[in-house]
Design brief:
alpha/beta, Rossmann fold, seven-stranded mixed β-sheet, 9 helices, 7 strands
Length: about 220
């Protein structure tokens, strides 16, 4: 992990603990787990143009893994609500060699994830937003927007920390416990779409990458509570 990336993350972590929701940026192991469906699709169809949307890229840990896998025509739209993170990521795109081959096809938007509106339909939506730290209504809006951006059979990926909500629930008041339970219920309502999950122990804290496919029928709606 780059020192500048860690410093930028820690500054925002102190200022916006709830929204940031992690001890440090995602490890490269979690980033690879979250980008696995995209990388697999790229390997299966090397000449096909693919479009990716990343929600909440932060300092770009997962963004870098996406960029490494991008083909010559692939595009990436990043939606980051935190202006300092968005500015940092734009500077990183201009200077970090890892983005040299793809920076002209990556766009960073300073906007909430649930307002994502890329110019091209997305083939993959990768959500790096800490969903467990948000109100349940925002979590539902983010997931639903991700599904709306995808074609039938498209893949929506998010991450979660399996242990932290349980620990936090033990130490929280009634209102916070209710929020944690409501977020869990929202995510559970979409489990029917889950295609796979990968536990990543080499991350702080250990995390899980969850992959969900949009309904195969064009007229099928997102699952609801």
């Amino acid at each position: 992990m780059r020192l500048t990336e860690r410093i930028a993350f820690l500054k925002q972590f102190r200022r916006q603990l709830v929204a940031t929701g992690a001890v440090q940026p995602s490890s490269r192991f979690l980033a690879r787990a979250m980008t696995a469906p995209f990388r697999q699709a790229r390997d299966r169809a090397p000449g096909h143009q693919l479009s990716v949307v990343e929600m909440g890229p932060g300092t770009g840990a997962v963004t870098a893994a996406i960029a490494e896998a991008m083909g010559a025509q692939d595009t990436l739209d990043c939606y980051e609500i935190n202006r300092e993170f968005a500015d940092y990521l734009r500077r990183r795109l201009d200077t970090d060699p890892i983005f040299a081959a793809s920076r002209d096809r990556i766009t960073v938007h300073c906007a909430p994830a649930q307002e994502a509106a890329p110019a091209r339909p997305a083939d993959f939506v990768i959500c790096s937003v800490p969903l467990n730290n948000l109100p349940s209504g925002v979590v539902r809006a983010i997931i639903e927007r991700g599904f709306e951006l995808l074609p039938p059979g498209g893949v929506f990926t998010f991450f979660e920390y399996p242990v932290l909500p349980r620990l936090k629930r033990l130490l929280s008041d009634a209102a916070e416990r209710a929020r944690i339970d409501a977020v869990s219920a929202v995510k559970q309502s979409y489990r029917v779409q889950q295609q796979g999950a990968t536990i990543v122990l080499r991350n702080i804290p250990p995390a899980r990458a969850v992959h969900m496919k949009t309904p195969s029928a064009p007229d099928a709606g997102s699952p609801r509570e």
